[in-house]
Amino acid sequence: MFQKMLRHRFLFEELVKRDFKKKYKRTVLGMGWSLLSPLLMLLVMKLVFTHFFGRNTPHYTTYLFCGNLVFTYFSESTKSGMRALMDNSRIFSKVTVPKYLFLLSKNVQTFISFLLTLVIFFIFVAFDHLAFTWKFICLLYPICMLILFNIGVGMVLSALYIFFRDIEYLYDVFVRLLMYMSAIFYQIDSYGETARKLFLLNPVYLFIRYFRKIVIEATIPTVWFHLLMLADVVIALGLGCFMYKKYNTRFLYYV
Amino acid sequence: MSILEVHDVSIRYLTGDFKEIGLKEYVMRKLTHNYQVNEFWADRHVSFTLEKGEMLGIIGSNGAGKSTLLKAVSGIMEPTEGWVKRQGNVAALLELASGFDGDLTVKENAYLRGAMLGYTRKFMDETYDEIIAFAELEAFQDRPFKQLSSGMKSRLAFAIASMVQPDILILDEVLSVGDGAFRKKSEAKMKEIISGGAATILVSHSLEQVRELCTKVLWLEHGERIACGDTAILCGLYQQYLDKTITLDQAKDIWASLRGHYDYLIVGSGLYGCTFAREMANRGKKCLVIDGRPWLGGNVACEDVEGVTVHRYGPHIFHTDNEKVWNYVNQFVSFVPYDGSFGEAHQGIPQGGYNGLVEGLLKGVPAVTGVSWQMLMEAFPNISDKVLYTGTIDGFFEYSEGHLEYDSLKIELEELEQKCYQDEAVVIPEENDEEHSGCIRVIEYKHFLHEKSPKTVVAFEYPQEWLPGRMMCRPVRDEKNMALYEKYQALAAERPEVIFGGRLGEYKYYDMDDAIAAALDRAVQEMGDAYV
Predict the structure, then answer these.
(1) Residue-wise over B265-278: b if at least 16 C-beta within 10 A, else e?
(2) Are residues B396 and B296 part of one domain?
């Protein structure tokens, strides 16, 4: 068992290395791009939306950054995860390897980008005159949950992508719609009670909300909030694992 | 306990289902009532077992289901029906050069591949230099992989994959990588792994390789198991199938008949062997005829060339004074009279050539082409109680006393774009043109049966010294050769279960009628009865 773990570790490391090299090959900025693109996005949003939404929102830059930080990680991770199986189909149709390794490798990549952006985020927070309280430690919870959530969604998407190529375009549209529904640049206070509750059904909104609560409002969300998030993660991950298990040997019929 | 057991494995692909055609097609076809899912069985009820140290060759045309079967064996794919049991670890080398990443360097790819094959980093660190040296890629280590030639890629793949010592090794078209020198090296490496006790499965389009390496063969066609067993015989049958001299069904029948047990095995399908087979079959004996050549009839066999019936081994004109033999052959085929004179009561050539006569004689008797005596004895040594051997008697004893000598002829066939070359079938030229100098006889085959082909086929015969392997005509039968023959006869006396008969078996020239008469006599002698 231990030997098996060690063996997969080596493969996993090599896959991560490969994915990194392939992603940033022959680019001048390399990893810099994964920082630059959310920052540019932030800049544009700040310039455009401050006029409309920023006036009534305290710490609007941080407010925006919370949304962008989470949403970029989510969309990058799930989009690249979607192709993980297909891109490696030539490997798993020749060698028996655990197929989730390909997905995890892509997720490692996006997670590192996320971490780098997170560092920048904290710098912004400091400049925004927000205090670093002990409650920041609670951010570990949404981060861990987001990692697992992204993996779960990635599993579902990558499995679907093998059987159903249209999902690529469908998901693209979906992600764009989701962005507008995740309250990244606006506040939901002006909506009615029911509408505000509906926002809670959006898992991405939950993650964003958690960040804002801790960083801007310095309050810890309720236990129910935590459980709701956990439920989303369990559903996504459970569905992903179920699909991988069920179709493990069927994937290669369709690649 | 077999190291690998494949039991009744079937693998099905579905085509045209929702997952394959996508949403738009699906809706379209549903609307037009055109939606249907087709199933395609890549393998159907395939079973075999493999023991330690064995090497199984899988042969079959493209699309026979070989690669799919290997995927099931290696566990990449799960069979739709049936099961695969493996004892020990499997290393599968499938279509080696694919699965590499063009953007990574040679070294990075080597590590990645090693990781995929389940090696540890430590193992890769230790063996990396050896791998690169084996693949002869020392100068390319840091080059992007896509700059390598396809031969180099395969070499690297082979070098990495062959670092293992698996219990079950699966090779799909991998031994034919690289140039000649590397091929030798990789074969040697493979043999080393096999001799280490691995059970090996080899898929190769090179029949030579299969013949040389494999201890048994599985023949698949359209996903179905045609046969599984002896390498030499199955490769021979497969070659005949590829050459289109036998059909798949015939191959199956042949394989089935080889696995029976017979009263008489008749080696050689010339007139002597065929007549003997007919007679014994008429007397209720179970007979099997084999011939090492890919056709039946031995030296009387004919072939159709451009609508002309050509005798493969020079002109055969049937002539006899023996009424019994003449009536006998006329049961099977009618004769076209021959105008030249041998001064005998009957002379002619069978309508349509001698193949009809051979077919008539062998009606209802299983006959196998392309299987030599040696091949058969290796695979099924106990196939019959008695043997009629009509091959060379010296060959039977592996030339232990030396070679018996024969007269020989060289026959050169020419297809000519003209209606007619000469007025008669057989002409002995008084003088030759330059091109045919030394020719002693010219045969124009179409005259024998008055065939109307717009083209003609002419044979020019030249004398030639006999050497082993060349065409054997008349036994020399001089003092020296007869002394040698007596030695072989003495050896033959120690093998009472083997009857030596015919021109080569008895080292004695037989005209066709004499061969038939002798075979009829032999059958009587064998059974201790009279003609039936």
Answers:
(1) bbbbbbbbbbbbbb
(2) yes
Lay out the sheet containing B441-444: strands in order across.
B408-416, B456-464, B441-444, B426-427
- The number of domains in chain B is 2
Chain A hits for B124, CB-CB cut-off 8 Å, are: 10
Which residue segment(s) compose the domain that B266 sits in? 261-404+476-532
Closest CA to B11 of B76, B62, B56, B55: B76
B481 & B340 share domain: yes
Q: B103, A22: Cβ pair inside 8 Å? A: yes
* B470 is a domain residue: no
Q: What CATH number has the domain bearing residue B519?
A: 3.40.50.720
Residue B437 shares a structural domain with residue B390: no
Please check whether residue B133 lies inside any domain of the structure: no
B267 and B392 share one domain: yes
Indicate if B448 and B309 belong to the same structural domain.
no
The CA distance from B228 to the nearest CA of chain A, in Å, is 26
Separation between Cα atoms, residue B135 and residue B126, nearest integer Å:
16
Rounded alpha-carbon distances, angstroms, from residue B306 to B423, B451, B452, B457? 19, 11, 10, 8
| C-beta atoms of A10 and B121 within 8 A | yes
- Domain end among B421, B437, B464: B464
Token digits of residue A19? 């994915």
Q: Coil, strand, or helix at residue B339? A: coil
Q: Is the pTM of this model over 0.80?
A: no
Domain count, chain A: 1
The reply to whether B400 and B413 lie within a common domain is: no
The model's pLDDT over B235-287, given as tens digits with 9 standing for 90+, comes to 988 988 998 888 899 889 889 989 889 999 999 999 999 999 999 999 999 99
B22 touching A (Cβ < 8 Å): yes
Give the C-alpha separation, B450 to B348, whole Å: 12
State the nearest Cα–Cα gap between A158 and chain B, in angstroms.
14
- Same domain? B370 vs B272: yes
Task: Tell me whether residue B371 is in a domain.
Answer: yes
Tell me what ipTM this predicted complex has. Answer: 0.81
Coil, helix or strand for B40? strand
d(CA B284, CA B532) in angstroms, rounded, equals: 12
Q: Would you put residue B408 in left (φ > 0), alpha (ψ -120 to 50) or beta? A: beta
Instruction: Supply the angle between the helices A167-180 and A60-82 in degrees, to the nearest 10.
Output: 170
What's the token pair of residue B426? 């057989």
Structural domain harbouring A18? 2-253
Q: Starting from the edge strand earliest in sequence, which strands make up the sheet with B346-350, in order?
A: B318-320, B346-350, B335-337
pLDDT tens by residue, B153-206? 888 888 888 887 788 888 887 666 667 788 888 878 877 877 787 888 988 888
